Amino acid sequence: MSTSLPYFAEWPQINSAVLKDEAIEAEVVAILAQMTLEEKVGQMIQPNLLEVTPAEAKQYKLGSLLNGGGAWPNNNKHSTAQDWVNAADDYWKALEEAYEGRGFRIPFMWATDAVHGHNNVYRATVFPHNIGLGAANNPELIKRIGQATAEEVSVTGLDWTFAPTVASPRDYRWGRVYEGYSEDPEIIYSFAGKMVEGLQGGSTGLKGQRNVISNVKHWVGDGGTLEGEDRGENHYSEEYLRNIHATGYFSGLDAGAQVVMSSFNSWHDEANYDLNEDSGAAVYNYKLHGSKYLLNDILKDRMGFDGLIVTDWNGQGELDGCTAANCPEAVNAGNDVFMVTSRSDWQAFYHNVISQVNNGTISMARIDDAVTRILRVKMRANLWEKPKPSMRELAGNDSILGSDAHRAIARQAVSESLVLLKNEEGILPLSNNKSYLVLGSAANSIQKQTGGWSLTWQGDGNTIGADFPGASTFLMAIREQVGTENVYTDASSAPDDTIAIVVIGEDPYAEMFGDIKANQTLEFASLKSSYASDSSIVQTMKNAGREVVTIFYSGRPLYVNEEINNSNAFVAAWLPGTEAGGITDVLFAKSGADFKGRLSYSWPMKKCSTTINRHAPNIEGYVTPAMEQDIEGEHKPLFPYGYGLAYLSSDTQGVEYNLDDLPLDERNLGCGVDEPDTGVAAINLEIFGPSESGEFDPRIAGEANNWTAFEVDRGSVTSIDALTVTPINYLHQQDAVKLEFGNSLAEIFFETIDGGPSDQNAYLNADSTLQFDIQLLSAAPSSMRLRADCEYPCTGEVDISTALPSVRVEGDAEWDTIKVPLSCLAENGTEFSLVDKVFLLQSADPVSLNLGNVRYVPRSLDEAADALSCEDI
Ligand code: BGC
Ligand code: BGC
Known about the structure:
The chain is α/β, with parallel strands linked by helices.
C-alpha cells in the first residue's frame, strides 16, 4: 500500500485484504436461515462484563461482550492472564450450551480496548499513546506494536480490540487528542493500515490464534468537533470530512479491519438528513449513531464495507428521542452490534428490538443484514474452528504478557516518539559521569506516564509498585542509567552545579474528563494548581542558577512558553507508557541514540491557539474551515508541524524565536469567554459529573479513620470504615457515585487537587446556587450536613437533612436536583475567596444515596424558583 496520501474526490471503494469467501457466505446464509428472531437479536447485543453473567449470556444467546475501561474479571484489577482466560471460557461455554440441540452453533466473542497495548490488563506492556506514535512516524514500528498487542490480547483469550483510533483531532481542547496519531490525515493514513495489519494479520492472521479482530473508530469526524467538545458537533464540509477525518478508514479498511465503531459526535450537513423521513428534513440531532447516510449509504453501500458496525457505549441513547434501551432509529440507520452496557438496558433493548421487528418498525431485512455481518466476521476470524479460549495457542502464557521482547518494542517507540523542542548550547545529550537532580510530580508517577486507558478507564488510582510490576518510571530509569547514588531527589542536598531534570505533565484523563473547558486555556500552569507548582519548580531551579532539562508529559500540545524560557532543554515526551528507559536512552545518547520524533501536531504560541492545524497537503486550495484558526497570522504556531531538533543536525527549521525569551501571552480569560471577568461568574463551575473541569478531586474521610482523606477511585469501589463509594452511571458512564454511610461520622467532599484554597468569590457575586443531583435511597438522618470549607476549621454548613427529596427505589430513572444558595453557606461562615472543599456532604448515621452532577450555577437564584431558602436549611 502506498503511504502517500491521495486526494479523495469521492468516497472510495474499499479494496479489503480480507476478501469475500464464497464458502463463508454460503455457510452464513445457511445458519441465518435456521435462526429465530430472538437468536438474531441476541447476536446484536454486547453488554459490559460487569453487567452480564455467563448464565444470562446463555439465556439471551448473546453474541459478544466487552469489558469497558476498568472492568476486569471478578472485578479484580490484578486479574492474571489465567483469570481472564477462565472468564472467557465461562462465557464461551455458556454459548456452546445455549445452542445445544439446535443443529448449528454460533461461537461467542469478547471485545476490549487494547488501545496502547493490552492496557486493561495487569502486567501488560503499555505502549505510548497514539500521539507519541504519530511523532515517531515509523509505520513499520506501528505494525510491530500491533502484532505485540494482538499477542498479549490472545494471551487473555479475547477476540477483538476496539483499535485503532483514526481520529484527526483538530482542537487541542478535546480530551481525546492523545488517542489520535496526528492532527493531519497524512500520518493517520499511513499508520491505520499498518496497525490493522499488525493487530489482525491479514486474512490468514485473522484465522490464526495470535491476532485479533481490529476495529477502526470512531466513524466519523470525532476529531473535528466544535471547540474540541467530546461528543460534540462536527461542522466540516463533506469534502473535508472525507479528506481530513476519514482517511484512516480508507487505509484501515483496505488492510482488512472487520469492524467500524460509530462515533458519539454529530455531523451538521444537509446530506446528513434522515433519509428515512419523506420530508427529507433533519428529524434527529445529526448524531452519527442515527446517520443512515454515513453508516449505511456511504460506509456500507458506497464504500462496500462488508464487516460490522458497532455502536459506541450506549451511543444509540444520544439520539433525540432515544434511550440506551430503546432506539429503533439506530438499528435502522445501520448499526449492527449494540454496546448496551448495563443489565437493565440491554435486557430491555433485546425485548424492544424484538417487538419493533414484530410491529414493523424495524424490518427483518435490516436484522438479517446485521446478523449476516456478525456471522461473517466471526467466521472470517475462524471462531468455529478455534477451540475454547483456554485451549488457544497463547492462552494464559504469562511469559508473553509484558514480555521483554514487547517491552523492548515499547522502549524503542518511546525513544522514537520524543520531540526535542529546545536544546540550548547542546546541554543534551547528558553525560553518564555526572550526578542529576530529578524533580517534578511526574518523575516517579506511573499514572502521568501512562495517561488514560491504563488499567483503569481514567488511568487514575494506579501506583507503580502495586499496579505496574515490570514497568519503569523516569526516576527508576535514570537511576538505572547513572546509578542510584548519582541521582538526587532533593534540591537542598544536590551540589549547586548539578543539572536539574524536571519531569512535569498532565494528570491522566479519558474522554470528556479531559476536555479543556470554556473558562480555561491551553496554558499548562493554569489548568490545575498542582501544574502551577510543577512549573514553579522549573522557575525555582533556573533562579537558583541550575541548568534545567524539562521533560513534559502531555496528551496534547499545551502553551508552555514560560517553562520553555526557563529550561535549557525541553522535551515533549507525550504519554510514553510503561517504558521510561526509552527516554533515558535518548537523553544519554545510549548507543548513539538521537531524537527522531517530529511534531505530528503544531505547537501553540498563544494560550488560545487551540485549532492551528497544518493545511492538509493533499487538498488543493485548502480553505480554512470556520472553526480553524489563521495559522499565517495571529495563531502562527510556535513550532510547526514536523518540527523536532536532533543532536546530529543544527537545523532549527525556520523557528526564529529566541527560546530563552518567548513573549508571554497575557490573556487571563478562558478561550471560550469573550468578555473580561468582572468578578461575576458567567458559566457553571462544574465540580463533579459528566462535564467536570478536573479542578477538584473526590475524597472521603471519617472519624473512624482519624479524618485521613482517601481519594475516591473513579473506576471501582472506595471504602473506609463508615462510608462506601461505588461509581455508577448517570448522565455518562461512571460520572456519579452511590454513597453508603455507616454508623460513625464520615464525609465525601470535592477538593482542589492540591488541597489549597481557590477563589470562588465570582460565584458568590453571581448569586449562584450549589446544585447537585440526588437519588435518596433511604431516609435522611438528622445528622446530615452540607458544607463548603475555606481550609477547615473555616467552614460554613447547613442542615440539609430536612431539605432532601423523598426516597426513591434503586434503579428509578428519575433524579432530584437540590439547589442551595451559596449565600446561605457564606452567611454561616464559608469564605468563598478561599475555598478548598467546594462541596462536602456528611452523615453520622446510616443512609444510602446516589450523587452526581455537582456544580455552582451562576444567576440561578431568581431563575431557580425551586432553590432552597436559607430558612429551610
Ligand atoms: C469510548 C470508546 C470505547 C468504548 C468501550 C467508549 O466510551 O468512546 O472509544 O471503545 O467506550 O470502552
Ligand atoms: C475535617 C476534619 C474535621 C471533620 C469534622 C473534616 O472536613 O477535615 O478535620 O474533624 O471535617 O466534621
